[in-house]
Specification:
transport, about 230 residues, XPO1/5, nucleus, ARM-like, mainly alpha
Length: about 230
């Protein structure tokens, strides 16, 4: 119904009304987290955050570009939540070994991480190809998402990071040329080490890694031939 509204002002008002309750709850959680980040470790709070993100993803799927005002409202806080949950997952796996990744808390934390990546990917994929959108949303991700992927232990790396950047390159094509080297430095060597130990581990990473390589080779090939030490 919101997407069908031709008046941009009314469309924005309807979107505000639709997202009022999720945004109110999101604001309360983020506000409390600024006083004590420990609240974000509470399983009930994690489930609430996941539910809010899933709601945003569904709305983004329908609205595309018209979801810009909503995602802009939560974007930076969302990346901070991603970073914190990633650190918790990484430390849990590093200290508890491979079995730690199967605990209910770690699974819940990773569900939030993946939903954040899915929300960003959904919005960028559905939005119109406008360079200013890419310039607004990609740079903050470079350390929070890419850098985090590179720093993490293998079992804590989300394959959705690879598909997200494949979507970005497929969307913005040669505009992403300058970022390709940063993407390569963050994901190439560490992912290659993960998938070359045998032919069974990390199947999702294998598939999405080659999707990323295909996107880069198709739209940013010049950046590939400029980098010869991979």
């Amino acid at each position: 119904m919101i997407q069908a509204e031709s008046d941009a002002q009314k469309r924005g008002e309807y979107l505000q009304r639709l997202m009022a309750l999720p945004n109110q709850k999101w604001g309360e959680i983020i506000g409390q987290a600024r006083h004590s980040a420990d609240i974000l470790k509470d399983p009930d709070v994690i489930r609430t955050v996941l539910n809010i993100l899933q709601t945003n993803t569904r709305v983004a799927t329908s609205l595309g570009t018209n979801f810009l005002s909503q995602i802009s409202l939560i974007y930076l806080d969302m990346l901070n939540v991603y970073r914190m949950y990633s650190e918790l997952v990484s430390s849990s796996i590093a200290n508890g070994g491979p079995y730690a990744s199967r605990t209910s808390l770690v699974k819940l934390l990773r569900s939030v991480k993946r939903e954040i990546l899915k929300l960003i990917e959904t919005f960028l994929d559905k939005a119109e190809n406008q360079p200013h959108i890419g310039k607004q949303f990609v740079p903050p991700m470079m350390d929070q998402v890419l850098g985090d992927y590179a720093r993490n232990v293998p079992d804590a790396r989300e394959s959705e990071v690879l598909s997200l950047f494949a979507t970005i390159i497929n969307k913005y094509k040669v505009v992403m040329q300058d970022e390709v080297l940063l993407i390569f430095e963050a994901v190439f060597q560490c992912t290659l080490e993960m998938i070359t130990k045998n032919f069974e581990d990390y199947p999702e990473h294998r598939l999405k890694f080659f999707s990323l390589l295909r996107a880069i080779a198709t739209f940013c090939f010049r950046a590939l031939i400029q980098k010869t030490d991979f």
